[in-house]
Amino acid sequence: MDCIIFIVPMNPCPCGHFPDRSRCHCSEEQIRRYLGRISKPILDRIDICTEAAPVDFGELRGRGKAETSGQIRARVERVRRIQKERFAGRAIRFNSQMTVDDIRSFCRLEREEEDFFREVYQKKGLSARAYAKILKVARTVADLDGAAQIGHAHLCEAIGYRSLEEKYWQAPPAYHGAESTQYSGAESDSNGGDAL
Ligand SMILES: [Zn+2]
Fold it and tell me: Are 13 and 74 in the same domain?
């Protein structure tokens, strides 16, 4: 069974600077219409949504700190081996292909994480599809960490990959105005960055 990795890069508004209102002068209607090009059902089918923050000059000039492509490749191959062993003798190869039954078997949560996830699920009004995707992504995050059990940090990271949906698609653009404090921490990091 082959897998396709589908990547959808997009700006958060027509000018690309939202939610930095000192640079973005797009109207609320323009932003809403622009984001609306990705519908909720499509968004629901995307496993990971993340922001690409602008890279500052110092980071571009920095040497020796970033992981090399070779190191990243080795990390991915290690995780693929873990998944190959997990699904040995079965028709699937990757965490993303897990069925509901597989999720029950391979994405078990400890009591504390179960309670936490239940609360998040109810508070965020997640769909059954989002629930399954979060657990599959959490399984992969745990694999990357070399952990047999999905822990709190793994689960939180996976939930975080669905937070853009809430930030951009569910919150009215007015929330991101200069007077708002709701997302003030994230705004300075995401100025001009691509959403998704
Ligand atoms: Zn804009």
Answer: no
Distance in Å, CA 20 to ligand 1 centroid: 8
- Give residue 152's domain range: 56-161
| For ion ligand 1, residues whose CB falls within 5 Å | 13, 15, 18, 24, 26
Rounded Cα gap, residues 11 and 133, in angstroms: 23
Distance CA 177, CA 186 (A): 13
Give residue 172 CA to ligand 1 midpoint distance, Å. Answer: 14
Q: How many domains does the chain have?
A: 2
Mean pLDDT, the chain, as a whole number? 84
Residue 118 and residue 63 share a domain:
yes
What single-letter amino acid sits at 89? G
pTM over the 0.70 mark? yes
